[in-house]
Amino acid sequence: MDEVDRILQAWRTEAPHLDASPLRVFSRVSRLARHLDLARKEAFAGHGLEVWEFDVLAALRREGAPYELSPGALIHQTLSTSGTMTNRIDRLAARGMVERLPDPRDRRGVRVRLTEPGAKVVDAALADLISFERDLLGALTCEQSDEIAVLLRKLLAGFEAAWRGDDQPVDSSGGGGVEAVG
Q1: The pLDDT of residue 155 is above 80
Q2: The dihedral of CA 87, 91, 94, 96: what is its sign?
Q3: Average model confidence (pLDDT) across the chain
């Protein structure tokens, strides 16, 4: 029995007219997400990074050479707002992790490029993150891990479509979709 089982048992007693069964899944996902957020915060702090800094740097690093994106693409990939992203880019630029460049295709636009120091720190933080998360998944078989990934992709598809503001679901068969941290 875990904490969610205790919560469900309490709701069955206090509100027996409600079917609280969705809590079996979403309360566990929520609690797991909170534990992962805390663990990631601690892991990234070891590299002098906040979680949001890792998110932005990782989005640029995943892009491949020359490791740059528009602020709009960064907003989309990190699920943030325009004002928040401007502040984040300013702070990362002040630390020498990114630089702003004019967009060659749009005189009014800018591109955000990962610098060499930014690439080094995000690569080291990513290696530690993957090692940590691989250890956590060690409690599962490869098949169980794959099954959870497929099921979570299906659940996430509706949220991602709503965030994009469309009714088109993301491919839940195994490819495509928006990436999470990392």
Answers
A1: yes
A2: negative
A3: 88
Q: d(Cα 170, Cα 153) in Å, to the nearest integer?
A: 9
Tell me what the mean pLDDT of segment 2-29 comes to: 94
φ, ψ for residue 4, nearest 5 deg: -65, -40
CA 170 distance to own-chain centroid:
16
Distance CA 84, CA 61 (A): 20
Residues 6+ apart with CB under 8 A from 69: 59, 60, 63, 77, 111, 112
**pLDDT at site 163:** 66
68, 110 in Cβ contact below 8 A?
no
172: pLDDT strictly greater than 50: no
Distance CA 178, CA 59 (A): 11
Q: Would you tell me the crossing angle of helices 22-45 and 3-14 to the nearest 10 degrees?
A: 140
Q: Which two tokens stand for residue 14?
A: 């206090």
Rg (CA), the chain: 19
- Three-class secondary structure of residue 122 per DSSP: helix
Q: What type of residue sits at position 140?
A: L
What's the pLDDT at 158? 83
| Alpha-carbon distances of 41 from 45, 118, 156, 161, rounded to whole Å | 6, 18, 23, 27
Judge whether 39 and 140 are in contact, CB under 8 Å. Answer: no
- Is the distance from CB of 16 to CB of 38 less than 8 angstroms? no
